[in-house]
Write a structure and sequence with these properties.
Blueprint: E1 2-8, H1 9-26, H2 36-49, E2 50-51, E3 65-66, E4 68-72, H3 75-88, E5 92-93, E6 98-100, H4 109-114, H5 118-133, E7 138-146, H6 151-166, E8 171-178, H7 188-200, E9 205-210, H8 211-221, H9 229-241, E10 248-249, H10 254-260, H11 265-271, E11 279-285, H12 290-293, H13 300-312, H14 320-330, E12 338-346, H15 369-372, E13 373-378, E14 388-395, H16 399-414, H17 419-423, H18 429-447
Parallel strand pairs: 1-4, 1-7, 3-5, 4-6, 7-8, 8-9, 9-11, 12-13
Antiparallel strand pairs: 2-3, 10-13, 11-14, 12-14
Length: about 450
């Protein structure tokens, strides 16, 4: 079953092109003699995320074409993504997959959502329809976008609402890039609140990936001297592409069998058992600089222990002095409470790995173990590592940045800061109040777990 990716806005297009590049790297033939299972792995991955056209006479004819639609109000980033794919010589974007204009949305969510983008929206829906018609069986959509800007968050949200109306039975997973807590855009909290509130009603799951946490991985674990957005995109793309490509379940439960088998949308069903609780977080180990990978050997027990420590840490990372003060005043922060989790193990003997995640303090006591944790394994290791462990969780860890954004946005709204920029393009104060109310209810529901 095929997945159509939506690259929305500057962030979504940069991340999407890096993600497809990582997918191609992950399915390259493994060193050594050819293996039947490697060929099956490559075929399944390409069928899900790429369309393989018949060979032609053009230089790029016959290359796998990404099942993707690129949408941005500016042409520069889209053109760069298309050119990067063509230069790789291994894959390309389909003709007509790019939808762009000449001017951006000025980081204004209202302009992207309710501004003069109707023609762009119609063209994007037509491109989506063309991609869907090329799928033998459509599983769903993966929308990659930022919540801080104008086009990706505003126009992207409106496009996702249209997709839900046009394809009500297809799964919709939104990958949301959460901005730095120190601020990238002055109105980023407004944009984040409006995006999250509107997507909550149309999306099946919202995977929140924080720039603060990804930056920490690049700076502290990968030892990047100067972290750029391309470094952040590479880390996220590797987690989404190389870590979550699996075939074989470990735990023989109804949930895991459904997840592994015929309909990838069952993944959303297992991780999102309640329509109000659909915020997901992702943790992956190991994260090592390239210079250390050849000299490091991980066993499964050590990887799972490291992953457990990673999931216990807070998502937001305040300065060291602030952490010490908070620890002295309020004590150490409690570990996040988990509603549902998916553990992905990749590498030799992954299927025979003893597990320690079935019943931990993070799990709710009233959730059956087979429903609280699904485990997948894949004997083929991810690119660059001998083994890896990844945890996709529906838990309270992601609430901290959401609560922080809602709090700051509310303080700005009470003082009417920049509200006129939104009302000018059709987003009323009632829309703000409805968004605040919905997210406060979501936060309260997670806090009650």
């Amino acid at each position: 079953m095929s997945v159509v990716a939506l690259q929305l806005g500057q962030c979504g297009n940069q991340l999407g092109s890096t993600w497809f590049e990582a997918l191609i790297h992950d399915v390259r033939p493994a060193p050594g003699p050819p293996r039947t299972d490697d060929a099956c792995y490559r075929e399944a991955a390409l069928e899900r995320y790429f369309h393989s056209p018949k060979c032609g006479v053009l230089p790029l004819a016959g290359l796998p074409e990404a099942r993707a639609v690129l949408v941005d109000m500016e042409r520069k980033v889209v053109a760069r993504s298309v050119a990067m794919a063509a230069r790789s010589g291994e894959w390309r974007y389909a003709d007509g997959a790019a939808v762009c204009r000449t001017s951006g949305s000025a980081n204004n969510w209202a302009y992207g959502f309710a501004g003069p983008g109707e023609h762009c929206l119609s063209e994007a829906m037509e491109s989506v329809r063309a991609q869907v018609e090329r799928c033998d069986r459509l599983s769903g959509f993966l929308a990659m976008m930022s919540v801080a800007g104008g086009t990706g968050s505003g126009l992207g949200t409106r496009l996702c609402i249209r997709l839900r109306d046009a394809y009500p039975k297809a799964g919709l997973l939104n990958h949301l890039t959460w901005p730095y807590s120190t601020g990238e855009v002055i109105v980023q909290n407004y944009n984040a609140v409006l995006t999250l509130a509107h997507l909550h009603g149309c999306s099946d799951a919202l995977l929140v990936q924080q720039n603060d946490r990804t930056h920490r991985v690049c700076a502290q674990l990968l030892r990047r001297p100067a972290v750029s957005f391309s470094h952040l995109n590479a880390v996220v793309a590797a987690q989404l592409a190389g870590r979550l490509r699996v075939r074989v379940p470990v735990i023989a439960s109804p949930f895991c069998v459904a997840l592994c088998g015929h309909h990838p949308g069952e993944l959303l069903q297992a991780l999102v058992p309640h329509p109000e609780l659909k915020l997901l977080s992702l943790h992956a180990v190991p994260q090592l600089p390239e210079s250390s990978r050849d000299f490091t050997r991980y066993d499964w027990k050590g990887l799972l222990q490291e992953l457990h420590r990673e999931t216990q840490s807070k998502v937001s990372n305040p300065p060291a002095l602030t952490r010490r003060v908070l620890c002295c005043v309020a004590g150490p922060a409690p570990p996040p409470t988990s509603l549902a989790r998916l553990l992905v193990l990749r590498g030799p003997d992954a299927h025979a790995t003893p597990l320690g995640f079935q019943r931990t303090p993070m799990a709710l006591p009233w959730v059956p173990p087979e429903a609280a944790l699904a485990v997948w394994s894949e004997r083929r290791a991810p690119t660059g590592y001998g083994k890896s462990a990844t945890l996709l969780a529906n838990d309270t860890a992601v609430i901290s940045p959401v609560e922080h954004a809602v709090s700051k946005a509310w303080r700005m709204f009470v003082s009417r800061a920049y509200v006129h920029q939104y009302t000018h393009h059709g987003v009323s104060e009632e829309d703000f109040l409805d968004s605040f109310t919905l997210l406060e209810q979501v936060i309260a529901s997670y806090r009650q777990l």
